[in-house]
Every structure is written in C-alpha cells, then in structure tokens.
Amino acid sequence: MDFDKVIRDRKSTRKFKKKRPDWRDILECIEAARYAPSAGNLHATKFILVDNPEIIADLSEAADHDFILDAHYVVVVCSDPTQVERAYYERGEKYLRQQSGAAIENFLLKLTDLGLGGCWIGAFVDDHVKRVLKIPDRVSVEALIPIGYSADISRRSKKPDQDSFFYFNKYGAKFLKPRRVVEER
Ligand SMILES: Cc1cc2nc3c(=O)[nH]c(=O)nc-3n(C[C@H](O)[C@H](O)[C@H](O)COP(=O)(O)O)c2cc1C
C-alpha cells in the first residue's frame, strides 16, 4: 500500500469480524516493529502473541474492554529495562517508553498495510496482565493490541490542524519571520 495511505488509513479498531487473520501476517508486523529506532540500538521491546481464547478473556478483563473478547489475537508489548537502564540510568525509563511507542506504531502501520485492524490499549491492570502471562516483575507491560479484520464502521477520529501544534524556532511561536537575505555582490 502507498506509504501516505497507510499512515492516513490507520485507525483504532474496536470491532472485529469473525474471519481469523493468518498468524504469519502478525509475525510480519512484529518484523516491522524490529526496524523501529531504539536508544543505543538496545532492543528492549518484547512481544507476546496470544491466541488462547481463555487468556484473551483474561486480558479483556484486565483492560475492562469487552471488544477484546472478539479479537482472534492479542499482541502484548513489554519492555525489559535491564540493558537500557544500565546504559542510561534514570533516563532509560523515558527511552523505554519512547522506543516501545515507536515499535508499536510500526506494528500498527504494518497491520494497516496488510488489511488488518488493531487498537493500542494502554489502560489495564498491570499486575493482572503480568500474572496471566507470567511476565517477570522487572519487565513492564506497555500495551495490549487486540487484532482482527475490522468490522468497525465508526468515523475516523478528527486530528488537530497542523497550526495548533507546530511552532517556529521557539515553543508557542506560530509565525515564521522572514529572514533578511543579504545579497552577495
Ligand atoms: C498510549 C495510548 C494508550 C491508549 N489506550 C487506549 C485504551 O486503553 N483503550 C482504547 O480503546 N484506546 C486506547 N488508545 C487508542 C486511542 O484512543 C486512539 O489512538 C485515539 O482515540 C485516536 O484514534 P485513532 O487511533 O483511530 O487515530 C490508546 C492510544 C495510545 C497512544
């Protein structure tokens, strides 16, 4: 699919068709996530592919989102801080959040490219998810991504106009002052 179309077509999908996606497509999305930037090229982001309906039901409860029950797959994204915090100390925590976000976006864009839908879920009871998936204490859960073919006909969410968040030279400066050009003789 055309790059700009993928970016514009991606939207959160909260309703899924009964048709089961091919799990190899999901592996392709994980492959796309592998190419995301990461601090020091330390790849701390981990992915758990869940297809067991009982575990999916548990994750739906942990997130208090019923639509997760209709997903054929849920990918759970985690960060292992061990190497990144050793390299970057307290700044490492910020890097872990940022690089997992970059990996998640690559993942979601590849889902769109393959005609699949998913939703970035950040609200869940961490301990519940960790207990169900046997995730070690030191590892943090970044997101749950329920996946399926979209049956979601809701409108695309409205995005802010560019001039509401884009500044020139200084934070909050909305206008670009023309530079005086000194002509060479
Ligand atoms: C960090 C983060 C956490 C999110 N958590 C949830 C969530 O818990 N439940 C949910 O339904 N959507 C969640 N979303 C999806 C947003 O609601 C969605 O991206 C936003 O409404 C914009 O819609 P769009 O993704 O269709 O462009 C989350 C998105 C992000 C980036």
Describe the secondary-structure layout.
Blueprint lengths: L2 H7 L13 H12 L10 E6 L2 H11 L9 E7 L2 H7 L2 H23 L3 E2 L7 H8 L6 E9 L37
This protein binds flavin mononucleotide.
Question: Can you put this structure into words, describing what you see?
Answer:
Helices cover 37% and strands 13% of the residues. Helix 2 packs across helix 5 (91-113) and helix 4 (82-88) packs across helix 5 (91-113). It contains six helices and four strands; from the N terminus they run H-H-E-H-E-H-H-E-H-E. The chain has a single domain (3-153), classed as 3-Layer(aba) Sandwich (NADH Oxidase), CATH 3.40.109. The longest helix has 23 residues, at 91-113. The mean pLDDT is 96. With 185 residues, it is α+β, with helices and mostly antiparallel strands. Strands 1-2-4-3 form a four-stranded antiparallel sheet, sandwiched between helices. Flavin mononucleotide is lined by residues 11-12, 119-123, 157.
Task: Briefly summarize what is shown.
With 185 residues, the chain is of the alpha+beta class. The chain has helices at residues 3-9, 23-34, 53-63, 82-88, 91-113, 126-133, and strands at 45-50, 73-79, 117-118, 140-148.
